[in-house]
Amino acid sequence: MYPSQGILGDMMKHIQGFIASDHRGFWLKDYLKRYELLIDLGTFDDIKKVDYPDYADKLCKLVKKEHSMGVLMCSTGIGMSIAANRYTGIRAALCRTVKDAELARSHNDANVLVLAAEFTKGSMAVKIVDKFFKTKFSNASRHKRRIRKMG
């Protein structure tokens, strides 16, 4: 999944992807980092209020450059989803269940998982992230055709 070259080089072979949040998603990002091998792109505390599009931008640019995957979170997940899906080649999916994560990967080849920190418990988030990273795209022709139509 990861290229042998890139800005992070061989290190990416051992990392699942990238993670970023705004101040409202910070607690969940901090929780997930205990269980998942993800490169943290910020924010680094929940005190200073920050703008979620800035963190979606950082993550999406690296996901595209490294041919990797990422996890974003904000309060509802909606803002991060909208911000991330503005990037060509990014298919961000707001997932609230393990099944959502499985289908986002297998049917839509999603490369960015978005979580709602306000509505997702830490233990459930770990299960969702785990399923997201372990599920492969089905490569079914109908799914490939639909993805092509989205550009």
Concise account of the structure shown:
Helix content is 42%, strand content 14%. The protein is an alpha/beta fold and 151 residues long. It has a five-stranded parallel sheet with strand order 2-1-3-5-4, sandwiched between helices.
Molecular structure report:
The chain is of the alpha/beta class and 151 residues long. It has a single domain, classed as Ribose 5-phosphate Isomerase B, Chain: A (3-Layer(aba) Sandwich), CATH 3.40.1400. It has helices spanning 26-32, 52-66, 78-84, 98-108, 122-134, 141-150; strands at 17-21, 38-40, 70-74, 92-94, 112-116. The protein has a five-stranded parallel sheet with strand order 2-1-3-5-4, with helices on both faces. Strand 1 (17-21), helix 1 and strand 2 form a beta-alpha-beta unit. The longest helix has 15 residues, at 52-66. The chain is globular and about 45 Å long.
List keywords for this structure.
151 residues; alpha/beta; Ribose 5-phosphate Isomerase B, Chain: A; five-stranded parallel sheet; 6 helices; 42% helix; globular
